[in-house]
């Protein structure tokens, strides 16, 4: 839990943290509503959130925005000390008029901005889908495992700084872009779906100023030798939420081994949704003579991920001594 601040709200809102999981800060509801209703805090909220240049250019989903503002206005209404500022009320009324209500889960793609420091001075903006699976792929949104491992890298920056990094199954690209921003020497993000690669390339362009040394390349785990990155040397190979299909794990583990043999370090984050699928990772790594070590998990801090929904482990792979 953190003390209430507009930055805490901003980081969650721009990352589209579900309203039911929103952390408004430490304090009982009376203390929190008194804090957010202070005229100077309302002004700060207006300037730093509604009037923010990123929000204007790369908005979150309209329905999410409406739900967020409903929750915020409810907090302001639950106290009697201060009136709601005219700017905020005007914005809220306009939002209500303009937002088309949709029933069921939202389907449109939208922007999420992931702030990379507590004061919201640096960020990565990703265009992503809100559905778990869309257009037949899971690669069009950012998954919890990648936020989890970004938190790990944030507290262990030496893992990525000045390293050449290859990412497998990058999806929309949050993690690779994070590595680039956090000081990796070079980051190549890969995927096999043309559709995913198009979205990935757009996100790389969107963040090219903050992440100048990030690029993408096609890499299908089944056809590693056809990929232009197969013979490159990387200091670090990463992958998040790429171990969800037991049938493909043996192939993926052979890709890990290919790079381990060439001297890369391999770190992945796996989401355990099904124990049998996860066990397959242990079986395949044993068969290939690969040792698996658990790295410590970091508590949610900069990024927001729902531990109660997805159990994530961060694993470091290395060759057994006999290999
Ligand atoms: C669950 S998504 C994870 C995306 C991203 N790493 C994240 O954590 O947000 C899995 C990704 O792996 C990619 N993928 C699946 N099978 C693959 C294969 N055989 N070769 C290359 N990429 C693959 C998918 O296209 C998708 O982008």
Automatic annotation (TrEMBL):
Instruction: Tell me which domain of life the UniProt entry assigns to the organism this sequence originates from.
Output: Eukaryota
PANTHER family hit by this protein: HEPATOCELLULAR CARCINOMA-ASSOCIATED ANTIGEN, PROTEIN-LYSINE N-METHYLTRANSFERASE EEF2KMT
What name does the UniProt record give this protein?
FAM86 N-terminal domain-containing protein
Q: Which organism is it from?
A: Basidiobolus ranarum
């Amino acid at each position: 839990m953190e003390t209430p601040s507009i930055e805490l709200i901003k980081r969650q809102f721009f990352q589209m943290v579900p309203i039911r999981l929103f952390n408004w800060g430490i304090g009982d509801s009376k203390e929190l509503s008194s804090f957010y209703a202070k005229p100077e805090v309302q002004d700060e909220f207006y300037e730093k959130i509604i009037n923010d240049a990123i929000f204007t250019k790369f908005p979150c989903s309209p329905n999410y925005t409406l739900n967020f503002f409903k929750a915020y206005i409810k907090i302001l209404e639950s106290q009697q000390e201060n009136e709601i500022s005219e700017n905020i009320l005007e914005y809220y009324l306009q939002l209500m008029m303009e937002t088309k209500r949709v029933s069921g889960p939202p389907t449109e793609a939208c922007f999420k901005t992931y702030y990379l420091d507590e004061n919201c001075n640096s960020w990565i903006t990703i265009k992503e889908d809100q559905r778990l699976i869309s257009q037949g792929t899971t690669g069009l949104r950012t998954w919890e495992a990648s936020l989890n491992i970004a938190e790990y890298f944030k507290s262990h920056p030496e893992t990525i700084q000045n390293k050449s990094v290859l990412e497998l199954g990058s999806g929309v690209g949050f993690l690779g872009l994070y590595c680039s921003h956090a000081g990796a020497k070079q980051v190549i993000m890969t995927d096999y779906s043309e559709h995913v690669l198009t979205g990935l390339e757009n996100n790389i362009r969107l963040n090219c100023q903050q992440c100048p040394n990030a690029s993408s390349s096609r890499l299908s785990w089944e056809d590693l030798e056809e990929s232009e990155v197969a013979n490159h040397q990387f200091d670090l190979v990463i992958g998040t939420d790429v171990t969800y299909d037991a049938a493909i794990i043996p192939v993926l583990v052979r890709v890990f081994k290919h790079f381990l043999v060439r001297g890369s370090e391999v770190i992945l984050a796996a989401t355990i949704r099904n124990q049998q699928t996860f066990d397959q990772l242990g079986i395949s790594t044993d068969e290939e003579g690969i040792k698996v070590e658990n790295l410590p998990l970091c508590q949610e801090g900069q990024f927001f991920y729902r531990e109660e929904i997805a159990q994530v482990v961060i694993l470091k792979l290395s060759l057994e001594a006999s290999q």
